[in-house]
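Thread: "does anyone have the structure for this chain?"

Original post by V.I.:
We have the sequence but no experimental structure in hand. Need at least a predicted one for the grant figures.
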Amino acid sequence: MTGRSTAKLRRVRLVPGRIRRGTQPKVVALGGGMGLSASLAALRRITGDLTAVVTVADDGGSSGRLREELGVLPPGDLRKALAALCGDDDWGQTWARVIQHRFQSQGELHEHAVGNLLIVALWEQLGDHVQALDLVGKLLGAHGRVLPMSAVPLELQALVRGHDPARPDDVDTVRGQATVALTPGEVQSVHLVPNDPPAVPEAVAAVLDADWVVLGPGSWFSSVIPHLLVPELHDALVETKARKVLSLNLAPQPGETSGFSPQRHLEVLARHAPKLALDVVLADEAAVPDRASLAEAAKGLGAAVELAPVASPDGSPTHDRELLAAAYDRIFRMHGRIGPWR
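Reply from O.Q.:
Generated one for you, tokens below.
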């Protein structure tokens, strides 16, 4: 895609409602937070057969409070994924705003998101994570399905060099996704507690049945890599016949990946999941100063590099959903398929 104009890329857009059944790929997107939301908002424009598999290690904000008080999965990243799958019509956009709405008060409801409360209420009513999320998706008219990666709340722990600025050479164990994401030190590695959490069976089945799996963009250590640390999900990602595309971030994340080059993101991924092979690494063409080094790192994972303008035209480090959709669409079409789209 290098060299193609933004205007031309914007015209490469498919509307899910116009895609005939049997002509679209089955796509599974893994991640969490705003990075996964960006992918989902793009992917729902090119396929109606879309499943999001979402991390459940969040321990901050509204999600963290509900998790601590009720012992539930953190619902925040699941809510964001559902909002991203809402359609562009009045119904979809109204519901997207409603579930994202946060109360402002001087009491206990302050900063709780409506969607978090709705999801948790349905979990308590139905006693089934997947059934409840499917019901919320139906209410919203979501263009796809949202699944948690595990059925138990997870704690993210990281080995961080220099977490305490007074001891820059010491390596400490840092606990909690919110703390890891904001550490001033250098993250060496991450792991989950428990270290062998059960994967949601529907998530494993979706990965094994997919035509394409999309990993990233997002917070590298706290949203992207955790999926590779759930044993059953890791094995499914290694064994699936689906092609896999890794979408890189537009810029290093302050704290978590400060100073990381695009190729270093790949090296970190490979250290955490050495058996995982990829097919394509997607990066914004303006965010890769050393294309040869990125290509070499991608080759080590079995992947080709696709460069495309996918950043928002306003200069912010956010993905433009239409440009990202165009990039995914081209990758799906140009890098082969297992067989006819089902």
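V.I.: this helps a lot. The CA atoms of residues 95 and 140 lie 6 Å apart.
O.Q.: and The beta strands are 27-31, 50-54, 145-148, 155-161, 171-175, 186-193, 212-215, 243-247, 280-284, 304-308.
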